[in-house]
Every structure is written in C-alpha cells, then in structure tokens.
Amino acid sequence: MKNMRSFLSSLLLLACILCGTSSAFAQGTNLGSIRGTVTDPNGAVVAGAQIQVTDLETKITTTVTTNTDGNYEAANLKFGTYSVMVSTGGFKTSLINDVVVRGSTVVRADAQLEVGTQTEEVTVQADAGVIQTETPTISSSIDNQQITQLPRESRDIYNFLYLNPNITQGATDDSFKFIGAQSYGASFSLDGQRANGGIFGGVTASQPSLEVIQELTVLSNSFSAEYGGIANIRVVTKRGGSEYHGSAFYNNRNSALAAWRLQDKNAKGIFTPTPALSAFPTPYFNLNEVGGSFSGPVPFARKKTFFLTSYERRWDYAPVTLRASDMPTSTILNGDFRGLAETTRPAVPAEVLSLLTPAELANNTFLTGTTRRFNVIPERLLNPIALSLVNTYYPQTGNAPFNPVNGRLIDFYQNIPGLITRDLFTGRIDHDFSDKDKFYAVYNYQKRNGVRALTANLPAFGLREQEGANHTLALSYTRVFSPTVVNEARGGFNTQNLYTHARQTTQEFLAGLGFNDQEIASYGSIVGPSLLDTFGQIAFTIGSFRGIASGARNADRSFDQSLITFGDTVTIITGQHTIKGGADFIRNQAIDDFVKNRNDPRGTIIYPNTFAGFARFLIGLPPSSVRYVFNVRPSMDVHNWETGFFIQDDWKLHPRLTLNLGLRYDLITPFVDKNDLMINFDPNATGNNGNKGRF
C-alpha cells in the first residue's frame, strides 16, 4: 500500500452525457455563465457586438463583445437574475430580461438583431426558447427566498438537502447518503472552498447563517469533468450590493409545539410503568436562535467595494436521559445485605474470617452449610476509599424497590440537563478593481460548546464537555484577459478543532476519593505520570452491578482536521468551442487522539462478577485483576495530497446540438502517518497459518 493510487476516467459525451470521476474532493468554480450567439436578420453572425450583462439585484454590469463567430460568454457570474443588452452599429438595441443564472451552470441568451438605430430598443422576455441549458450538468438549486420561507426543522442549511430525492439521512443526524453512498463520497464547498473534513471526508461545521446564503446547489446526478465525486453540495453566500440592507430574526423550536418522532411514539407504545417511572416521559427540547445580517457598499469605496456580515447565537436545551436496570440499591452500598435473599448474600472472604470477633461472627454473619455469609459487613472493616466511591458516584435511592435476588433496582431513571451553544459569524468582502478584475473573500467562523453526553455511565460524573470551532476562508480572483479568455484563481483553508473531555482529571478523581499525594504519585508511576493530569477516571468493574466507565476515547480527545486548497480555472472561447480547463490541489491533515485513549490507559480495576466480589471491594481487598496500557500510543497524525486536473470542450455543432467532451485525472496519495500507527494489508505475504494475506 506504499504506492500512490490514481485513476484516470474519461468519456466522450454527446448532449446530456458527461465526463466525471469517483473522486470526492474536486472543487471547481461555484460561478455560472451566460453564453450566446448574436446574428442579424438574415442569420449571419455579428462580430464585435457589445454585450452588457447586469445583475438586477446589485446593478453590477459585466461587459463583453462577440468574437468573429458572433459568440460571447459572460463568465464567472454569481447566482441571480440578469438582463442582457446587445448593441452594435446599424441595429436596434436588443434587451433580454430575466435571465436566471444558477451556480455551476451555463445558460444561453441568443439575440437576433433588427435593423435600425441603437437608440431604438427591442425587449425580449426570457423564456425557454431564449434560455437553454448549455452544459450536461444536472443540478437542483434553491435561492435565499426559498431558504428563508420554506418550512424547515432548523436553520441548518444542510437540512434542505433532503428536498433532493437522491439524498437521504445516513446513520446519524449529521450524515447523508447520496444515491446510496455515504457522505464521505460527496464534495461540500462554501463559496468554492472545500468544506469536507481533512481525513474522514464528512461535512464540517462550516455552514453559514441562512441570512447570508444566496444559493444552495446540489449536483447529484451528472455533471461535467470540472466536478468530481458522487455529488457536489455547493453553498454560495450573497454579495453586498450598492444599497444598505439588514435583517434580524428570532427562532424558537420546542417540544411543546413539535410533533413526536416515530421512535418516540414506538417507545411509548411498548412502555411499561415502573416505580421509578410511572408514566412515559414526554420528549423535551427547546431551541432558541437570534441573529441578523447587514450588507452594503464600503463608504470610502462605494462603487468598488461591498461587504456582507452576519452573526447568530443558538441555545439548544435537551436533557440526557439515563435509564438502567443494573443499578445497585443504596441499602447495600454500605455493606448491609439483609434485604437480599439469604442464599445470595456474599460469603465472608477467607482473608477476613480470622479477623472477625466472636460478637461480629454472631451478629454480622450466618452459616449456610459450610459457607459463612455476611448479613452486614462490620463498619470497622469497610474501606474508606471504597465507601467514598460508592457514596459519591452511585445514586442514593432510599426505599426504591429492588430485586432481592440480584440487589438491583427494579428500574432507575434520571434526566440530566444538557445545553449546547453555537456562535456563528460570516463576513464577506467583494472588491472590483475594474470591469476585468474582481476579487472576493469570505470568512466563516462557528463555535460550538456545551454538554450533551454522559462522561461515564453514572449521573454523578455529569456530562462530557465539548469545545469545537471551525474556520473557513474562501478567496477568489477573476481576471478577464479578453472577451474570449477568463481566468479564476481560488484558494483558502478549512480547519475544524474539536476537544471532548470528562469534567475532572485522573488526579482530581483520586484526590476526591481520599488518596493522598504520595498514593496518587505511586499510582502515576505505574500507569504513567503524564496520565494523572489528563481528563478521565479509573474504570471499575464491581460485582454484578453497573461499574464505573473510563469514558473511553472521548474522556480526553482532541480531533483536529485541516485542509488548505488552491485551484485555477481558465475559460477560452474560440469559434464554436468553449474550452475550460483547470486544476485543484488540496493538502489534508488530521490529528486524532482516538488511539491514545483505547483500552483504558488510566487503568481498570476488576472485581469478580458476584456479591462476593462486591464485598471484597467494600472491604478493600485486592481485585481479581487489573489492566492498563503499558505504553500509551501517541496521537494519530496524518496528511495526504489530493490533486485533480480537467479539460472540457462544449462544441456547438448546431444551434440545437452541442457536443460535450471532457477528460479528468485525479491523483489521491495515501496518508502519511507521522507516528506509524496505521495498518496496511499485504495480499502477497504469507501469514503464520500459511495462508496468503497479512496485516
């Protein structure tokens, strides 16, 4: 697996058949184009005609001229509605209204001029006969008005993906399936900047506020060689216009007004009341969001520089529910087993039997056959550390009913309040150096903090804290070298940092149980001194009851993904050919503490899965076994490169027939692992059993 993997895919395409690849990273431009041919009343092409393409919202005009074959293209246009004005000497000015451009698409606006003077004007309303899809790309788009007015469950732009019949929900709420494939087979982008994760390829928290989104475009069926992957999800933000605009909103979604989910209805249907939970708990959540946006021209450069900015904050309240049937009744936590059936009470350990006084033998134990069992463990024998642990972390359930055979509560139920906050900021600057040089920069920041999952499997440990932040920067510079040559250079980065951890360190956990500094240092000398200051706790397996979990990989886990990109696309119009070519370069990197916390590196203390084991724990006798990671592994630290090249030609053979030719080459290198943690498979090696194939 040391060799670089690559694939080459090329297809000759006719009409709506296209070239593509199975790569998931290709970026391409997120801008559209208006393309057309200008002819005179006799059908002859008109060279040198002036074309003015005006955005009807921002009033920004792009000017091009027809070439010797009468063809023109206004490239790199944002989503919007445009007017196309065609003028040349000896002919009336032709105005085509309401030409709608979608991102990543090319539409036609052909004009047939009438003889007359330029002061005379002929207006044509755009319709299906005037505007035609010029490329084999099949896309679906929704604009800002639809985004803000359509019924929706939340203000997350990716919820609108389900409007596309080819997209369904994946295994979790934040994952998708595209024509059956998982979300890491798709390419997400924000204003042309890749928004996938740097290693697993899933979507990152880079989506901006709905207030600033101009368009959401999904390429899920077929698209040109410019784009790769099984699907492309492209989010485009608005451009600030020549006038000042603002918006403000407040949004609330709560369980009192929301319909029940199917899984909640099913759960209610099979619910059986218990002393701990006499009625089915009504699902509860309460989500509040507030924010706004503001855009317009920059005062000292009103005709050249435009800005857009937005901010919103979210409070997402929802409880974390713990329901268990293996929780011990509090009557036995201090060594009182009289509520249990006599045959299930723990046997007196051999190490303790000789320490009992005659009075304790008579009052605290009883004999069944040859086995002496505890009724109550004498208080003087109870270990203070063990008592501190059970009384601190196990719920005190009072007289709640329990099973006398196993000592477990009939049922245990508790809600723990959870809150996640999100801050979302987006800023955009557009600067027009001239009609031929345009630049934009978009920065999106999202911060997400809160608690929404149990630290361990007991409520006293509280909820695990998460601290996340995402930074996405998209840069684009467009240069019109001539009416027939346009170039767009783009670049940027996307970083996502996520840190999840328990609420106390191992040292704090031990100190809270009553261990002194010397004892804590002694423990650290075994498992590793550095682990004492990391978040998490020692795991305990205690009898047949619910033990204390370590928190596993998320007790103290950093997961950072980052990528940096650069790409370039050039468009050349020559004769009946519109040729587009370009390349994208992406460097992915990720650091993940997943392996560092495998197998409970802070240690697991195991007592037998019996009442006798529980009694040994309360007395402070040695466990049956312990385990820990002798050499804690470092973090996974990997990087790789992804490179894509493409060239395509839209060859207009006839006004009603276009031949689309495309070729794409993608090169994806394997991940380079800094700490040598990755496993490879050698199909030719012989294993110990004599079979071929070995890890």
The count of helical stretches stands at: 8
Give the biggest beta sheet. Answer: 13 strands, antiparallel
Distance from first to last alpha carbon: 11 Å
Report the structural category: mainly beta
Query: What's the alpha carbon Rg, rounded to whole Å?
Result: 34 Å
Averaging pLDDT over every residue, what do you get?
85
Strand content: 35-45%
Pick out the low-confidence regions.
Answer: 1-24, 128-132
Query: What is the strand tally?
Result: 39
> What best-fitting shape do the alpha-carbon axes yield?
elongated
The percentage helix is under 10%
Structure commentary:
This protein starts with a strand and ends with a strand. With 695 residues, it is mostly beta strands. Strands 1, 19, 20, 21, 26, 27, 28, 29, 31, 32, 35, 36 and 37 form a 13-stranded antiparallel sheet that branches. Helices cover 9% and strands 43% of the residues. The protein is elongated.
Itemize the secondary structure elements and their pairings:
Blueprint: E1 5-12, E2 32-39, E3 50-55, E4 61-65, E5 71-77, E6 80-87, E7 93-101, E8 106-108, E9 111-112, E10 121-125, E11 140-143, H1 144-149, E12 167-169, E13 176-178, E14 181-182, E15 186-190, E16 193-194, E17 213-219, E18 231-237, E19 245-254, H2 262-269, E20 286-297, E21 305-317, E22 320-324, H3 350-353, H4 358-364, E23 365-368, E24 371-374, H5 384-393, E25 412-416, E26 419-432, E27 437-454, E28 463-482, E29 485-501, H6 506-513, H7 517-527, E30 539-541, E31 556-574, E32 577-592, E33 604-606, H8 611-619, E34 625-627, E35 636-654, E36 657-668, E37 672-673, E38 682-686, E39 692-694
Parallel strand pairs: 2-8, 2-9, 7-10, 15-18, 30-33
Antiparallel strand pairs: 1-36, 2-5, 3-4, 3-6, 6-7, 11-17, 12-13, 13-14, 15-16, 17-18, 19-20, 20-21, 21-26, 22-25, 23-24, 26-27, 27-28, 28-29, 29-31, 31-32, 32-35, 33-34, 35-36, 35-37, 38-39
